[in-house]
Amino acid sequence: MAANMEKFVWPARYSWYDPVAERTRGMNPRWRKLQSALGPLGGIVPKVYRYYAHETPLTPRVQRIARRVGPLRFMVAPAYRLYRGIRDDAARPMVAARADRILRSRGVKVVHFPYPLHFETSLPYVYEPWGLPHHHQPECFRPGEVGWMDELFRRGCCSAAMVVTATRWVKRDIVEKYGISPNRIAVIPRLPRFDHAERFMDKATAMEGLPESFALFPSATWVTKNHLRLIRAIARLRDQHGVSLNLVCTGRTNTPEAEHIEKEIALHKLENQVRFLGVVPVERLNTLYKCAKFLVHPSTFEGLGLPLLEAFHNGLPVLASTAACIPEVVGDAALLFDPFSEEDITRALLQAVQDPALLGDLRIKGTQRIEQGFPSPDKIARMFYTVYRHAAKASLDLEQQQLLREMLS
């Protein structure tokens, strides 16, 4: 952080969709009975409930008070928990008025939410939804999650002073799905941080237990990452073309899809060809980028696709899907395939294995794509600064006006 920057802990926590929490989010039966019993005054109950510090244990002092008040002791626990809920920042609801007070007390004029989760505030804010996968593949999400996500993303996009996306494809998608004016959506192409990209592990250590030649797919085992079709394509490559391609996968495996992937590997007897390493240190991942034959990225939805850019940076040829924004990100620097067609994935894999000249050409084009297709980190910073000023309705100099036109075009 720069010397003029300050870090402070926000006094509220936010989490992704949780079916159990959503089912129990309403008032419990005892509170609903109290609301009914109060009749016209029942509207007070939900407001009190929001400030009530549920299950907060009584301190020894409060326990002593409860013993002393005799027949009124049943009131001590609720009174104490209501007091704690009002006093304790962690228990109080983060309503817009409270958020505004905290932000203004620190001189904040614009808020930037770099991910879909956000809180209510009347201050102008910049919102980054990254993409709307729930609109394109609702079958990949849990019951109730699509509606929850749509409410979250729609509220964030509609209330934001400015929305920022990394690709024009996502911008068009937001305009189409939510009716947001294109003049409120800035496109800022993004590169991952490369300041750790030169940290490598000893090759022998990084490659321990792995084959000498392999394709790399670094991604968590979410349904939209499309591991199943890739595994079936590798089986077709072996069974129909006599080519055994090794695949090394990194990333989180503690997902619901992981069990299906394990069964698919066993079904096709690919245990010796497909390996999952889980989350690996960045030094090992960088070394795998350098050692792999090519990167294969069969995702059925991306808002950007950071592994594609990491592969370009490391000079690794890329095979990628035609889904969502991926063609915009890779340009002509990747061999593309239909991610929903196992036959087409197989075709691309076979072409990569049999045509070393193609991989050499892709390697050169990938490096050029990084150098020519994306703004520098300094320009990205100036773009964001311009968006902040525009969101706050501050004046823009000539350079910032030009940057804004570029981002909105």
Task: Write up what this structure looks like.
This protein is an alpha/beta fold. It folds into three domains: 27-87, no CATH class; 96-187, Glycogen Phosphorylase B (Rossmann fold, 3-Layer(aba) Sandwich), CATH 3.40.50.2000; 203-372, Glycogen Phosphorylase B (Rossmann fold, 3-Layer(aba) Sandwich). It is 47% helix and 9% strand. It contains 19 helices and ten strands. The chain has helices spanning 19-23, 29-37, 44-51, 60-68, 76-87, 96-105, 133-136, 145-159, 168-178, 203-206, 227-241, 257-267, 282-291, 306-313, 326-330, 342-354, 356-372, 377-391, 398-408; strands at 111-113, 125-127, 162-165, 185-187, 215-218, 247-250, 274-276, 294-297, 318-321, 335-337. It has a six-stranded parallel sheet with strand order 7-6-5-8-9-10, with helices on both faces. Strands 1-2-3-4 form a four-stranded parallel sheet, sandwiched between helices. Strand 5 (215-218), helix 11 and strand 6 (247-250) form a beta-alpha-beta unit. Helix 11 (227-241) runs parallel beside helix 12. The longest helix is centred in the C-terminal third of the chain and has 17 residues, at 356-372. It is globular and about 85 Å long. The two termini are 32 Å apart. The model has no long low-confidence stretch (mean pLDDT 91).
